Structures are given as C-alpha cells and as structure tokens.
Recover the amino acids of this structure.
C-alpha cells in the first residue's frame, strides 16, 4: 500500500483548497483500504464538538451538519485519549453514538485515528466496514500516517483562515511585531513594480542608461531625505536612522558600481538594478540569523523603488480618505513613511519578523503591528480588523462585545504611554535604591538608535557585520573606522561595546561563501576570525583608531568556547594596540587600551568561568543563543519554537551560575539577549542580581519604568518562591502578578 499512500499524501499536500483535499483523501483512502466508508471529523473548539467535514460512504447531506459533542461517542473518545481505536463491532461499544442524519446503520467495524498537530487535536480520521472484523496492523499504520499528513494540511489551512468562508470572522495568528492595539478598516497595498516580474532587456546605448540611473538615484535620494525630514520633525525623530540604512546602500560605491557594471554589459538600467538586487536578496535570505535575514527586505524595497522611478512617474505621498490598517505581503519602512501618520493605525504583514525595519519603525512610532500572517489578503480588503500587537493576533470582523473590550484597552494603553513618558529623563533606580544600567543593542543604522539617545546609558552590543555584508569584498580599515567612529562619537562619555565580526555558515558574506551541514555548530564567530588574523587585526585596529580621543570603546568576542580562543584574541588585541599607538603617537590624543570581554552563549563556558575570569575584563550573556544551545531548540523553526523558553529551569540555573561567578570574581556582567527587554524577564534578572541590561530601543522606556516601580529585595523573595514551582507558567504567573499589582499588567496583554 506504500504506492497508494504516497499518491494520497502528494495530492492532499499539493491541494490549495482544504475541502477539496479532504474530499480527495476520503475517496482515495476508501479505495486504497478497500473499506465501505471513510470520514473526517474536525474539532470545533468554539462549539465544543466534532463536525463531519468530509465523507465517502455516509450520507452526503450530513457533511457540515452532523456533530458529535466533545467527549461523546467513539470519535470523542479518540480525541480525548489521543490514540487510535480499532473495533470489530463499534455498535457494541458503550461509547457508540448513533448519528441518524449520517445513515451509518449498516457499518460495523470501526478504525479511527486522531489528527494531531503540535500536541493539539484537530480532528479524527475514520474508516468503517459493513462486515464485523478487526483491522490489521498494516491498516492501522496506514491510517495513522494519513492522519499525521492531514494534520499539517488542516493546521496550515486554519492559520490562513481557509477553513472559513469569505464572510468568516475570527482570529488569525502571527508574530507580535509592535505592541499595542489598533482598530480600523483593512487597506490592502500591492506594489506597482515587483523585481521578480520585471523582464530583463538589453540596450544599445550604455551612456543613456547611465544617465537614467543617475536621474533616478537623485530622485530616490531626495525621497529618502524627505522621509527622514518628516520623521525628524515628528515625535518619531529617533526613527530617522532607519532611513539612513537605505541612504547608506544608495550611496555605497560598491552597490552602485555593480549596477553600472551590468549596464556596461549591455543591460538597460532597470534590468541592471533587478539583477544586482536579486543576487543580494538571495544572499541575505538564506541566512539563519533573523536580524540579518531581514536586510533582504531592505534591498528589495530599495530595488523596487528604483525600478518604480525608472518605469513610472513619481506619484508622491499616498492619499487616504480615512485612517486605515495597512495590510500587505511585505511592508517596508519607506511604505510606512509614505502614509501620513494620522492615517496609519496599524500594520499587518505576511512576510517579515520582529527584526524587520517595518517592525522596528512601527515600534518607534508606537504603531501596533502583527507580522507573519499567512492569509489570502484579498479576502481582508475593507473589512474591520483588530491588530493585537501584544499577542500577535489579527481579529477579523470582531463581534460587538469584543470591539467594546478592545476599545477599552486602547484607552488604558494611552494612559500607560503617558506613564512611560514621565521617566524619560529620570535615572534607572529601583524603589530600594539599586542603580541599573540600560543599554542598547544596535547595528549599523538598523535599529533606529545610532543617533544619540538620552534614555540609554550607552551601547551594550554593537553588531559589526553589516558593513562587511553590504559589499562584494572585505571593507578596508578606513571604511570600518568611519562606521565605528560615527557610533562612538554619538555616545561621548558613554560606553560602546563592539562585538567583533560574527559571521559564518549561518550569516554568509557574499564574497566569502561557507558551505556547512550545520552552520549553528560550525565555522563562525571567533572561530572564523582567529583562523583569518588578517581580517581580525584590521577590524581591531579600525575599532582602536575610531576610539581615539573618545575613550569609550570595549570589545566583545562572540561564540567563544575555549580559553585558548580568548588567549589568542588577547595577544592579537595587544599587537593591534601597540601598532596603532605607534602610528598615532604624533597625533593629538592617545588611544586607551579597551576592555575585552566575551559573549557567554555557548554552554561550555559555564564550566570554565573560574579560569576565564583572569583572562577578560567583563562578561555579557547572549540569552538567545545560550537558550537555543542549552535546549537544543531552533527558535526560528515553527515546529519546535513552542519549547524555546528563556525561563526554562535549566536556563535560569545557568543565569544564576553566571551572576554568582561574576560576584565571586568581581567581573562586570550584562545581559544582551531579548530577555533583558522582556517585562517578566527583567524582574527575574533583577532578582538574581543582574544590574546591566542591553536591549532594542523600543523596550527602553517601559523597562526603565518597570525598574523604577520595583524593589530588588521584594523580587529576591519572589524568585525564591517561584523557583519552588515545577511549572513554567506558574513561575511566570507569579512575576506577572507583581506587574499587575503595580498597574503594569498591560505589558503582558492589551490595557493595564
């Protein structure tokens, strides 16, 4: 039956319509297993029953009508026990429930398998026969295999809303891109020009194509400058830096040079833009690092903007009659900028993540956003939506009672924003007098936080990968100096911690390909740079030169697993400092020797802390990767992302071990993973003794407010109580109540 099984699975998974797929499955399964009936029952959570969704053998008119309450009948028993049931005569079973509308009087033998996806029962797949007999073991395996395949199809259809009619109202699940709640009508945007749909053509006169490109570059630069100016004049002035990354790309001589090279090869300007952009998009898109993977969207947006100006006239700002919820397959920062702020209430995107520029800009502007919604967006056009940016939910055509509740939450949200604004210029000190440092995680203009931010105490993590990835060669020492100097000069008198180049198999350089089966465990981070001292030394020298006269540089090593790596890196830093100091001896201002630290993100370092302490000046905990490696979970893999938990008992014990060792050996220690920007996470870390937190710009104000409303002595007692719980949800609940008691429950959900 293996051939039949493959054919059924292929047809079901290839179908774009769930009802059609289920109909085909029951028909082919009945034929392949030579049974008299095959049926699918889907679990209806809101109605608390199983609905007959497809059948070949029962009465056709019963489809969509026949229902079995949860826990009743043999179907309900299968769903409850979550296991297969094989009966020679189902009518003799005490749980048997007769469905008169289905006309199943003639059927005796019964075999049913649960349809389960990620621990959730979605329905039951059943075959029946008129004769009394037990089904064979091979038939059981066949049905279980089909049920597992059907589970994926049903789960995907549920996520897209395809189980519903065009008039469906309900909830679609996505990713929380920007916190907040918005209510409004959907406005679906489609790009006028798409890179993938532009046909490539040759030209006879390269000079004319260069002139066309020059004209368009000026037009797009003016647009970007205009967008930046509008944001500079608004309350989202710190968002200007998002557009600097576009300007950086647009002025990058390497990027523009590649386009001109294509023109010289005979391509028209539009085709040259398409060819270069698609190549760079492909390079960024395959990277496993979500932060860097999102840079593909920046290249695509800029490429489509150039192509639009090459093909169409500039239409200027979008005109809208009323405020809208912006819905699109992929939303760029520049698209957000083109919509008047007074007309943009919320954002819904099929593509993109919390690291996309759209999400970053939405957070800076205070616009609720949900990313990763897999749905047929044409069905959403002009429908009433609620964007729940706390939970990543999109509510379609909500009922009046739900609308009223969310409107109440919006009012409470506005009150919370006013609360956070009151501490902008205040110090980060707890109610019992403990001082806390709040730092920024940053990249080259990519986190809206390179410009001076008075609410931050410095930069706790500056990613140096971007200037390496935007070229077709390694950047020169002077190019790196320019990039690093700009960051350090923005934070005079405040620390700036720069992480050395962290690339490898999962973060590819376009001109330095690395092919590995498992890049997360491969040649990356400090392993790569130590193997290439000519790259590492140039970067260290560039950092040192950039720090001259500012004296605010510290350097951090990524992906460290052994003490030898630290010793070699220290010797190379010594050499770089000596050489740069000698070369700049006659210049004004000496170069201070920087602090050297390591990222604790590989579990092996947990067992080397006593030996590591004399070799470095500080530690910084990368909770994202540390959690990923401790739990063996790829958080970007949807199948296992649900068990990625930064508050897992093993992670908590590791964090406690690190802070205890930091106290013992007098080493400054900070947290630079997402846990530092999480409301519950920061309370747990404060209770453990952490006092330095580095986070994205969007989290700074709310974390500062939480710090100022908390007492470390209370949190320490709370942690001791919470650690006695075996259940993670109970652990989180205890700290959640601490927030609620201070009127901050809205940080965990909409409203206060």
């Amino acid at each position: 039956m293996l051939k039949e099984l493959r054919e059924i699975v292929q047809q079901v998974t290839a179908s774009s319509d769930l009802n059609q797929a289920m109909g085909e499955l029951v028909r082919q399964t009945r034929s392949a297993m030579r049974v008299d009936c095959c049926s699918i029952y889907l679990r209806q959570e809101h109605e608390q029953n199983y609905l007959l969704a497809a059948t070949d053998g029962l009465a056709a008119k019963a489809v969509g009508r026949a229902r079995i309450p949860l826990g009743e009948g043999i179907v309900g028993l299968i769903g409850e026990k979550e296991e297969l049931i094989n009966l020679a005569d189902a009518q003799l079973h005490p749980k048997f429930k007769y469905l008169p509308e289905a006309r199943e009087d003639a059927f005796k033998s019964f075999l049913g398998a649960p349809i389960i996806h990620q621990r959730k029962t979605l329905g039951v797949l059943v075959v029946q026969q008129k004769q009394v007999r037990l089904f064979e073991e091979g038939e059981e395996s066949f049905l279980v295999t089909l049920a597992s395949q059907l589970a994926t199809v049903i789960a995907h259809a549920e996520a897209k809303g395809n189980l519903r009619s065009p008039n469906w109202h309900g909830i679609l699940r996505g990713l929380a891109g920007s916190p907040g709640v918005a209510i409004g009508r959907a406005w679906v945007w489609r790009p006028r020009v798409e890179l993938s749909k532009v046909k490539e053509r040759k030209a006879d006169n390269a000079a004319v194509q260069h002139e066309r490109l020059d004209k368009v570059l000026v037009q797009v630069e003016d647009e970007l400058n205009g967008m930046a100016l509008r944001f500079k004049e608004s309350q989202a002035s710190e968002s200007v830096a998002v557009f600097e990354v576009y300007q950086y790309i647009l002025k990058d001589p390497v990027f523009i040079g590649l386009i001109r090279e294509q023109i010289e090869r005979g391509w028209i300007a539009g085709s040259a833009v398409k060819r270069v952009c698609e190549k760079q998009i492909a390079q960024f898109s395959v990277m496993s690092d979500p932060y860097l993977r999102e840079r593909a969207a920046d290249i695509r947006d800029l490429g489509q903007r150039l192509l639009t100006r090459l093909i169409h006239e500039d239409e200027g700002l979008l005109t809208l009659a009323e405020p809208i919820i912006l819905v699109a397959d992929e939303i760029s920062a520049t698209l957000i900028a083109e919509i008047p702020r007074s007309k943009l209430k919320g954002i819904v995107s099929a593509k993109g993540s919390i690291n996309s520029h759209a999400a970053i800009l939405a957070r800076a502007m205070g616009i609720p956003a949900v990313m990763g919604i897999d749905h047929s967006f044409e069905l959403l056009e002009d429908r009433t939506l609620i964007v729940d940016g706390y939970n990543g939910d999109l509510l379609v055509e909500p009922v009046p009672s739900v609308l009223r509740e969310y409107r109440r939450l919006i009012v409470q949200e506005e009150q919370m924003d006013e609360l956070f604004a009151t501490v902008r210029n205040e110090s980060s000190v707890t109610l019992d007098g403990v001082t806390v440092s709040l730092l920024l995680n940053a990249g080259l203009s990519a986190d809206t936080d390179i410009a001076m931010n008075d609410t931050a105490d410095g930069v706790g993590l500056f990613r140096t990968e971007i200037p390496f990835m935007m070229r077709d060669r390694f950047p020169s020492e002077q190019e790196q100096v320019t990039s690093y100097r700009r960051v350090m000069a923005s934070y005079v008198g405040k620390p700036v911690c720069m992480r050395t180049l962290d690339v490898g198999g999962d973060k590819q350089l376009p001109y330095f390909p690395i092919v590995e089966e498992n890049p997360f465990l491969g040649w990356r981070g400090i392993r790569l740079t130590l193997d290439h001292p000519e790259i590492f030394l140039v970067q260290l020298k560039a950092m040192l030169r950039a720090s001259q006269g500012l004296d605010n540089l510290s350097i951090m090593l990524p992906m460290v697993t052994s003490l030898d790596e630290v010793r070699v890196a220290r010797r190379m830093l010594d050499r770089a400092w000596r050489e740069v100091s000698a070369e700049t001896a006659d210049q004004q201002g000496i170069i201070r020797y920087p602090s050297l630290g390591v990222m604790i993100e590989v579990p092996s370092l947990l067992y080397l802390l006593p030996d590591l302490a004399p070799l470095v000046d500080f530690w910084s905990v990368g909770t994202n990767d540390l959690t990923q490696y401790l739990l063996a979970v790829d958080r970007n893999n949807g199948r296992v992302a649900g068990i990625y938990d930064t508050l897992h008992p093993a992670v908590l014990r590791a964090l406690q071990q690190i802070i205890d060792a930091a106290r013992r050996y007098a080493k400054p220690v900070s947290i630079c993973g997402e846990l530092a920007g999480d409301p519950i996470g920061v309370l747990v870390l404060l209770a453990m003794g952490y006092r330095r937190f580095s986070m994205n710009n969007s989290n700074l104000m709310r974390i500062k407010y939480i710090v100022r409303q908390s007492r470390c002595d209370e949190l320490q007692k709370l942690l001791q109580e919470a650690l006695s719980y075996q259940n993670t949800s109970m652990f989180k609940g205890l700290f959640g109540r601490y927030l609620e008691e201070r009127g901050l429950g809205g940080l965990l959900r909409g409203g206060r």
About this structure: The domain at 437-600 is CATH 3.20.20.60 (TIM Barrel). The longest strand covers residues 120-129. The chain has a mean pLDDT of 84. The chain has 25 helices and 22 strands.
